[in-house]
Amino acid sequence: MISEITTESLWADLRKVRETAPLIHNITNYVVMNNTANALLAVGASPVMAHAQEEVEEMVAIASALVINIGTLSQDWIAAMALAMTAATEKGIPIIFDPVGSGATSYRTRICRELLTVNPSIIRGNASEIMSLVDASIQTKGVDSGADVSLAEQAALNLAHHYSCVVVVSGAIDLVTDGHKKIAVPHGHAMMSRVTGLGCTATALIGAFSAINTDYFTAAVHAMALMGICGEMAAKEASGPASLQLNLIDTFYNIEQNHIAAYLKD
Amino acid sequence: MISEITTESLWADLRKVRETAPLIHNITNYVVMNNTANALLAVGASPVMAHAQEEVEEMVAIASALVINIGTLSQDWIAAMALAMTAATEKGIPIIFDPVGSGATSYRTRICRELLTVNPSIIRGNASEIMSLVDASIQTKGVDSGADVSLAEQAALNLAHHYSCVVVVSGAIDLVTDGHKKIAVPHGHAMMSRVTGLGCTATALIGAFSAINTDYFTAAVHAMALMGICGEMAAKEASGPASLQLNLIDTFYNIEQNHIAAYLKD
Amino acid sequence: MISEITTESLWADLRKVRETAPLIHNITNYVVMNNTANALLAVGASPVMAHAQEEVEEMVAIASALVINIGTLSQDWIAAMALAMTAATEKGIPIIFDPVGSGATSYRTRICRELLTVNPSIIRGNASEIMSLVDASIQTKGVDSGADVSLAEQAALNLAHHYSCVVVVSGAIDLVTDGHKKIAVPHGHAMMSRVTGLGCTATALIGAFSAINTDYFTAAVHAMALMGICGEMAAKEASGPASLQLNLIDTFYNIEQNHIAAYLKD
Lengths: 266, 266, 266
Hints:
3 copies of one chain form a homotrimer. The first copy, chain A, is α/β, with parallel strands linked by helices. Chain A has a single domain, classed as UDP-N-acetylmuramoyl-L-alanine:D-glutamate ligase (3-Layer(aba) Sandwich), CATH 3.40.1190.20. Chain A is built from 11 helices and 8 strands. The first copy, chain A, has an 8-stranded mixed β-sheet, sandwiched between helices. In chain A, helix 2 crosses helix 8 (about 200-210). The interface between A and C is medium-sized, with 34 and 33 residues.
């Protein structure tokens, strides 16, 4: 399946992000805001973080994608997320939804299911989070999950079918599906799980790619492949998780077509 | 105009910051809180972040400057900002105001104009933000703006006149004016625009310098010159935006008189 | 007293953290959330940040320790802290309390005293913060304090006695006491005080060690010793506070028994 990601198409989309600098509106969690903004800037997009109910609809009106991440949710923010998602649906820009910690508490699982009624375009989570969106009895440990991606494949297919959206399950090998097609993205590095919020960064990158490519399945595949390739490149020079995080941002900024080709071997 | 910034005066003020470690009270946005605190600590100041309405007036009472940044604003925070600004005015310490994203939504523009009625001492923004404070019809794209500083010169002069304050317009060449005098600060590096929140860092540095120099025009010039020089030094060793951010903080900590002299060439 | 920390016992506990990856529930401040999460991940624990009153009790139910840090407090968060602390007490997991800025405003001092009525297992603060918990007339400057640890020794003993808890006073030489035993932890580096939130990181590490060692005195000593040793190792290769912060996280990830032995010289 890997042969479906080509250097040419990934590189074309990355160039488009860099040339058009799409505005990505993020309503995300406190832990990752800085890293998410820096990842988006480094890859060439233009991030904005805004969560006040008074302004989210207006911010959506000037944005090219909306990223919703419930990592540190509370009632005020959820109301703003719902407003922004509705505005994004009406405008027709992609909504990328990250159900951080769904399954860890019944509150998170319930809120995720409520927000899903405003159809997101793309959902990205780890295996436990994706499974909990389909089966509320799934209990996960906090926001990190060791559950294998393959365990969530059926849930991902069901979810994609049910909401007519693209679903990404992150793990050692990522799975991307629209309910019909599916593709495995094998890139990345084990140390990435020791850096907080790299899943959230992946979600934000999907925002950047879906802002410039209306084929959301391909956009999600490109974002996950770029994330994995840059992660591998960053890990090579890293002496631990903090230098990995630093190198990753620098790699988003520096990566060129020949680096991508070296990993995709197409 | 550049000749007005002298190594001697900038160095004297930087030494004063390092020797007195003024307490800078920040009510700022979630994205930059960590970097802002680290920048202030590295330059020699003592940062505190506090936004509860129950305590901001008491925090102002022990602070030497108040930095207000609306980057991720919401109603509770705005009320706290207004309380803190009033307390700072009564105490006579400088208020530095950063209208992040003013012009991006009408909510931000309106809140900025409301907060401006409590006269800040110094306002720092990019060209679009500064223009939106004078002409509410200015629409900007998110929080990053490519608008040229020169476009905002008249707005900056008007703003400085109207509020009897110092206005700083950030860009490739920064403009600082008190409505009468103006000065261009040419330092900095293009890659700085790919790091989130360096404008907010500049605003916080103005806080540190205005805490120890009641001539706010000179304080703002010193802060912007230090920001630009350290940015250039940091960029030399950087392989991307994340290493630039890291080097910048380290440079704030390490910079000595001879480095400043090498850039100012006075 | 230093001889009480042995390489063998510290290493055994660190291995236990790495092998069991205990879930540490943090209700902490905006400034340090990212660094705290990364420190916990690097040392081998699993962090979760959650503050909604609707979910904190359920999150405590799956956690192995609860870290409460009032750095950027506001009313909603305090209510969530109280709920979580009560749930943690009932469950019998350790509560580690960080009274950031207690003494800086009467609001902070009052809230700390209220939260202390739900007995925390371990309290960590700097000298001023610890003293303010005993004597509300103590006034500190912001969140950084130059007050000497020795000044707070009596307050620490009284506090530990009164609440039957372990108290840690951070400084150049840390003091750990349970009201009877006391121990000095001499490790660390002066530049650490120029990095924001390393006190908060120490508090979170105490969370990780107390999650796997029910002898909270020993757990606190181990966490503070690891913090200090890693800080010294990180400082050796650092060219400023930002590279110190980066190296510190990488060192948490990489440190092995022989490094610890080299510092403890036991």
